[in-house]
Design brief:
With 192 residues, the chain is an alpha/beta fold. It has seven helices and five strands. Helices cover 40% and strands 14% of the residues. Helix 1 links the parallel strand 1 and strand 2.
């Protein structure tokens, strides 16, 4: 029997009609059965400020978020690109999870990055910027295949379903590779 891995999915777009969210859901739909996904919403997290942690009074939203991520085996980051980097909401979630110092919930969790854009370069800048943070956080980021999905608006129908068979095949291969990456790098099987 294969190990089941619990994977948090963080989506860096809050927009109602987010191509990033649609593409993340399409990736989840073609992933191996060994991966169990939970989309962890990040839009309600108060901006990180060290003072509440220093006073041992972190906001309830931070505590709940940290507890959810702590239970996960791996993380799939789905991000658009804002100004050649990740959106502030995603960076804030990363900061909240990395604190207080020495208590990061990210450490040793294998990660993959799916970047999505209506433009041609598939949010390359955000993908690469995010990878820098993951290395610092001691999260082994999957090195290959990389996932830069450009022209997203042309790949999805009005209901958010993929219309491109080649993109679906790519996402399937990407998610199969992520499952293998988790098998090789997760510290222990299925904590959730």
């Amino acid at each position: 029997m294969s190990t089941q891995w619990h994977v948090a999915v963080l989506i860096g777009s809050l927009r109602k009609g987010s191509y990033t969210r649609m593409m993340a859901k399409e990736a989840i739909a073609v992933a191996p059965d060994t991966l169990v996904f939970e989309i962890v919403e990040i839009g309600n997290l108060p901006l990180y400020n060290q003072d509440p942690d220093d006073q041992k009074k972190p906001p309830a939203e931070w505590v709940a978020f940290r507890d959810r991520i702590r239970r996960m085996d791996a993380v799939l980051f789905a991000t658009p690109e804002y100004n050649r980097s990740v959106p502030g909401v995603l960076k804030n979630a990363i900061d909240v999870g990395s604190r207080p110092y020495g208590e990061s919930v990210w450490a040793r969790k294998p990660a993959a990055v799916l970047s999505v854009s209506p433009g041609a370069i598939g949010a390359f800048g955000a993908n690469q910027h995010l990878r820098q943070s993951l290395v610092f956080l001691n999260m082994p980021p999957m090195q290959a295949p990389e996932a830069y999905v450009g022209n997203a608006a042309k790949l999805l129908d009005a209901s958010g379903k993929l219309t491109s068979d080649s993109t679906r095949q790519f996402l399937r291969m990407f998610m199969e590779s992520f499952a293998t990456w988790i098998d090789r790098n997760a510290p222990s099987p299925g904590r959730a």
